[in-house]
Amino acid sequence: MARPVITPQTIVVDQGKVFISSSFIAACESLGISVQPAPPGNGPAKGHVERTFSSINTLFVQHVAAYTGSHTGERGKDAEGEAVWTLAQLDDLLQEWIICGWQEREHDGLRHPMMPRCALSPSQLWAALVAVCGYVPVPLGREDYIELMPVKRQKINDYGIRIDYRTYDHKVLNPYRGERSPAGDGLWEIHYSPHAPGQVWVRLPKPDQPRGYGWEAVPWIHHTLVSAPFTDLTWQHIRRTVTRRGSRVQHEHDLALALRESLERAAAGQGTRREKVVTARAPTAAPDGAVWGGLHGQGPRPETEDPREDVFDDSEDDEEPLTDDGALSIWPTEHTPRSDSTAGAVEEAGLPAPRRPQVTVYDPFEESLRW
Q1: Does the pLDDT value for residue 192 go beyond 70?
Q2: For FRET with 310, which of 24, 26, 250, 286 sits at 20 to 30 Å CA-CA?
Q3: The pTM is what?
Q4: What does DSSP say about strands 151-154 and 34-37: parallel, antiparallel, or unpaired?
Q5: What are the start-end ranges of the H helices in 167-323?
Q6: What sign does the dihedral 27-30-31-34 (CA atoms) show?
Q7: What is the phi/psi pair of residue 213, to 5°?
Q8: Contact status, residue 206 vs residue 182, Cβ threshold 8 Å
């Protein structure tokens, strides 16, 4: 069993901040999805969405430990003491329930035209539609993943790019320092990942490419000082605990040192309870963007020159603190092929060789015969 991969044409949203954010709108535009906002405070305008939330609440959420309910009458005596799942674990449980529970559950509103008396599950109806329409898998590329990240528009200054007391700089920005972008507002489009703030991606003009632009990765100037992965949550914790005692440049350097010490203490099993909590949510991939290299065979760009510490000014950063506005979190996994030396050792030991996965081509005619 697996969850069907469906690209929606329209997404109906309420006036929630996460759904009307620039990151969500930009992600939908990159995938060709239209966004239809519903009137605020009008549940009947999106009744099917509210009914789905109610079904998730009754079929899944109420069976999870530490369920609080919609009001105190549905809450247990010690709901907070029963909490044993992290957000990542809850997400895994929800995804597993969607595949094994929701998709395999018959629904009275799902009927096959040739069998109107038979209620079908979402997976069964999806298979029937695929048998008629077909399906062409289109994997996302490196540029597509970057497009789905949160976006921020700002200038490229002499010192580089500043986001939330972090400065990003690289020699690829030299031709564009102090220049206006081709966009109407004159600002440059910058994408970032709150789960790996070690670098950002800047959309720069590339006339030689089919799209007319390209994405350039710009690392944090202190990425060599902080080699362990961290998230924006960890960074915000460090900002609240470190007091500014010098210039803007010195304060950023102090933040980087405090971040490194906090990550080292957490890795050694020391530190405060809060430090262990914020560092436990760090990604497993390196923050320098090596996750893209594992998928597309492109390693991170080596830094050939020292960080430009001498070109900073002492002026205050006029950027607002960066907040996570509901960005999609997408991390491709790296697959390591089985080596021939390992296979030879298994055969010499007299053990049966591991079975290779069988790749089959989907046949819509064969699928239609099953119905």
Answers
A1: yes
A2: 286
A3: 0.61
A4: unpaired
A5: 232-241, 248-267, 273-280, 290-296
A6: positive
A7: -150, 170
A8: no
